[in-house]
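This follows on from our talk about sequence and fold. I would like you to pick a protein and set down its sequence and fold. Go ahead and set the record down below:
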Amino acid sequence: MKSRFRDAVERFACVTVLAVFLAGCAGMEPSVRTAEQSPAGRGPVLPAHLQEKIRLSETLGEALYASAAMATLGAGVMTEKVGDAKAAGVCGTIVFSEGGGGAGGSGSWMVEFFTNLKDPRVAYQVRLVSAGAGDVKKEFKVFKPPRKPADGELLLHRAIRRAVEAIPDRPDQPVTPVVLPGVVLGEDGLLVYLLAGSSRDNVAVFGKHYRVLVSLDGQRAVKVEPLSGDVLETELGAPQQDGTRPFLYVTHLLGDYPLETHVFLNRLHRTDLYVLTDKYTWRIHDGAIQLDSVRK
């Protein structure tokens, strides 16, 4: 029999990425080349041993983008209604998909804001519902008094707090947390991504992002993985007529292939991103990772 924590994970954490993850798995094949095929029949072929890793980076990057976009949109609604989050006593945010859509953040999403760190309560709630043609219906709700969270809601809030606490020397950057089920990386627990932001406008933040594996009950940080070497912000070029921006490039020294955070940034800023590793140069276009050249 499943524990109540695993049930909570499946009801709330897994649904955070369910629509995006399943849609991505079903539709990712065209963007992942086999060892016998290169893009449009030209250029270097994709190394066979990296194919599944690259596919996972694409899928997880799309999930991060969808969740973070909804969190940002929900925070904007809350700020419009309430004002400064800190002054309102907000001490945490969770976001999860209620389903009903596919990749890119469609369907219905819930963003909830907690107050009272010692005895967490849900004070504000924003429901974001796709209305078609790119429109989003925004529903804002205030709980007076703030309500006790359900088990799954409290689990997500607790997991995020444990992840933040596990990095005592974390740079002073605003972060957007995204929680995904650990099973997507073959782990037993919750994956808490801490996506770094900036107080500056018009920049792409390449670091310092973290991925923290938290125990299934949300009580303990099991593993902390920096996804970038240091704090890194790059100026964005001016948008072009079609809304895209001039390409960006970044050197990645933590592995041979782009991570999900690189795909997330590509989708977020609508710009081609070139990732230079020790062996390869990669191009990320519209969420798809392509091998541009072999460096050595």
